[in-house]
Amino acid sequence: MIQLRTKIVLAFSITILASTVLMVTIINYSTRRGYENFTKRNDLLFAERLLEPLTDFYATYNNWENIENYLVLPRPRMGEMMEGKGRNLYPPIILTDSKGNILVNTQRIDFGNIGRINRNILDHGLPIYNSNSVVGYLLTGSMIANSLSDEEIMYLNRVRAIIIYVSLFALVIAVIFSYIFSSKLTKPIRRLLKATNDIKSGDYTARVEVDGIDELSNLGHSFNIMAQSIENSDKWRKQIIADSAHELRTPVSLIQGNLEMILEGVYNPDREHLENIYSETKTLSRLIKELQELSSAESGSMVLQKEKLNIQELLNTTIKIFTPGTSVRFLTSIDENIPLITGDYQKLKQVVSNIISNGIKYTEDNGEIHISAYLKNSDAIIKISDNGCGISSDDTEKIFERFYRTDSSRNRKTGGSGLGLAISREIIKLHNGRIYAESEENKGTTITIVLPIA
Ligand code: ADP
Please, what is the average pLDDT of the chain? Predict the structure, then answer.
């Protein structure tokens, strides 16, 4: 596996290298072309300056004799002097007669021993006229040899070498910077990778350090949220398994103990003992049902059958289930004008039933349960109060936790699992509502449900 950092460094280097090669080629080509044009132009100017004295010479003597002694070179111009550094001050000059026989050859350029220039080179030169006929040709620099001189080629090579050195330097800088840059860029990815591996191997507390505000920081932030929810659900899973095992142990050991006694002949398999065992199996199956319900509500897999429902109707129907066979008195003050709310009728009925049945369970005979409902702002408020044993202020929050039972209810052996209110809270949460308890010990408890109308 090639590391991301190496890939980035490679990508940078290849880009720089490719652009360097391209740049060197283009610059080299255009410098050479530019330089050739420049030299040609200079050579022509130079030749033109020589043309007049040469023409005069021929007009005066009518031949080229002693021309080599006469040919006085003009003073070099500033640009030419600078050009001339390290090479001859002037370009080579060749003067021929009209047939191409060399009369002057300042730099003794070798044309073989024929001492004559052939026609196609001659055509590049400037013709010298006398009485309308060509009496000679003047050739300078690039007119003689089209290619550049050694000095000029050296100069161009120097330019190319400078470009290559600069490009190599840029390449080294690019590699260094891309290494630093890619290390910085891949650092959050490496952190994420490490944290992901930690989570994979079961360490759900792994988090990544988040700095900056770019996409990778966002990714790190989302990762932390995800890791937190994995940690929470892992905790929740472990806790629910531990709690469930603890709660299931009591009825299971009671069943087991009773059956062992019967098998060992200590107890008779009579109705009384069988009824005890049966009652424990009912506790067990209720516990299992409630656990399933809580787990589906807490894990978010509970599906609500939502419909428009009338709170007044829901409360009255639920109260009717409890009235026969209870010595507790029901008082109601339910506002008729509460608008319909959207919710799961059966689930909300289950919540109200659980609260009313708690009210009955934790209230002495002839107690009272007061049920009221009204509209406040855009919420429907349902209050179910009893005048029973009440709950200590420390416990009013805790009773909504799963398996939580107050000491007094444990002592009363009311037989509850401690799951009813936990399930109720989850159902109300799924309706975007709230549920809370207010209580005073030995005076009574009020459970309030707030459900949004919209
Ligand atoms: P349970 O099945 O034990 O009643 P709940 O979740 O419904 O489970 O209630 C949790 C605990 O809250 C109860 O065990 C009890 O201690 C306390 N509780 C609930 N409602 C009342 C009430 N109206 N009066 C006093 N205590 C209550």
Answer: 87
Supply the residue whose CA is at minimum distance from atom 9 of ligand 1.
418
Contact 384, 355 (CB under 8 A): yes
- Tell me what pLDDT residue 113 has: 59
- Model confidence over 380-390: pLDDT tens digits? 999 999 999 99
pLDDT band at 410 (very low <50, low <70, confident <90, very high): low
CA of 198 to the centre of ligand 1 (A): 41
Q: How confident is the model at residue 137 (pLDDT cuts 50, 70, 90)?
A: very high
What is the C-alpha separation between 384 and 330, in angstroms, rounded? 10
Cα 319 from Cα 357, distance rounded (Å):
10
Q: Distance between CA 281 and CA 259 in Å, rounded?
A: 12
CA nearest neighbour of 87 among 109, 68, 111, 107:
107
Map tokens 């005073």 to a residue.
440
Atom of ligand 1 nearest to the CA of 406: 16
355: how many CB neighbours lie within 10 A of its CB? 27
**What is the residue type of 252?**
V
Coil vs helix vs strand at 50: helix
Residue among 294, 358, 384 whose CB has most ligand 1 atoms within 8 A, to mutate: 358
The pLDDT tens digits for 417-432 are 889 999 999 999 999 9
C-beta of 403 in contact with ligand 1 (< 6 A): no
Tell me which residue has its CA closest to atom 25 in ligand 1: 390
Atom of ligand 1 at shortest distance to CA of 418? 8
How many A from CA of 445 to the centre of ligand 1? 10
Sheet holding 444-452, edge to edge: 329-334, 368-376, 379-386, 444-452, 434-440
Determine if ligand 1 sits within 6 Å of the CB of residue 294. Answer: no
Enter the tokens of residue 331. Answer: 């008082």
Rounded to an integer, the average pLDDT of 38-49 is 87
pLDDT, residue 338, reads 94
Cα separation, 210 vs 188, whole angstroms: 8
Name beta bridge partners: 439: 445
Q: Give CA–CA dist 184/171, Å, rounded.
A: 19
Amino acid, res. 175: V
Asked if pLDDT for residue 76 goes beyond 80, the answer is: no
Element (H, E) at 90: none
